[in-house]
Amino acid sequence: MEVPCVRVPREEGETTRRRLAEDDLIDDGYEISVEEGSLYVPVADPDAVPDDLEVVHRSPSERETQTTPADLLEFDPSYERLGKAALLDEDDTERAREIADAVLESDLPVETVLNKASKVKGETRVRDWELLAGEDTEVTHREYGCEYALDLAEVYFSPRLATERYRVAQQVSDGERAFDMFAGVGPFVVPFAKRGAAVVGVDVNPDAIEYLEENARRNDVEDQVTAINDDVRTVADKYEDWADRIVMNLPHSAGDFLESAVRIAGDDCVLHYYDIQHENDPFGPGERAIREAAEPEYDVTVETRHTVRSYAPHELNVCLDVRLER
Predict the structure, then answer these.
(1) Is pLDDT larger for residue 144 or for residue 326?
(2) Same domain (yes/no): 288, 202
(3) Is residue 170 included in any domain, yes or no?
(4) Mean pLDDT in the chain?
(5) Which residue ranges does the record assign to the SAM-dependent methyltransferase TRM5/TYW2-type domain (predicted)?
(6) Bigger pLDDT: 252 or 322?
């Protein structure tokens, strides 16, 4: 069976392998191989491989199976990975501890196990966690060549949106001015800056802004990033007519901030508007709200109607990529 592999000269192999491993792109189901001076690293998502690396298709040997949590249990547990942490969502405390023990005994590179203890709540969108293994709730997460420090008990972060963040970041050009209205720890801000944009990130959570500043330093983009701890509606006047690109990733209530977004938008601005709506009309409410806020001052063109993921039964998390031209 042919699978996508990154091909690099053998002397660059270890550096490339580490780079792909940091981005969690290596397909552990297949062996890394060497042939005629080239190293071939199987990858799980070829579309996420950095543009400077070559992807080819080969038939590598399957790797001997590693011990997984499912091998140690009588069921296949559900969990998310975030850095060296495993995130559970179990109501049964005994079952959660059983899964945590299996995760730690498996071959997964996990040091911390957390179980969700509440829903996302409050203005800062944080949740409570039960620490089942490890020292604390702070983790280091790597995503598409960027590194993020964050404390899950103090900030909101979803690893499930990694592919969506990458999709948007790929649209950013060198020299742009980008504005993230709900920036969190910087998962949009940092990759935008790495692509050459000047970026302003605003968040009401002071802990998120501290991590955003730290993550800008970690990724060597601190000179391109301005982090502001405030309500974006208070900041909007200062950045009137400023942005070439705006991110509004606050589903359920982004519409309340559209007036500020229109104020921040420059003469030609792309707006990434996130929403959660019923599957019968997932894009209509957002598009109507944007048009009501922006017209007639701007011509409004919906460039992409994109479904990010299923959010709940019959509800979709969607993104509208909208161009505003004055």
Answers:
(1) 326
(2) yes
(3) yes
(4) 93
(5) 79-326
(6) 322
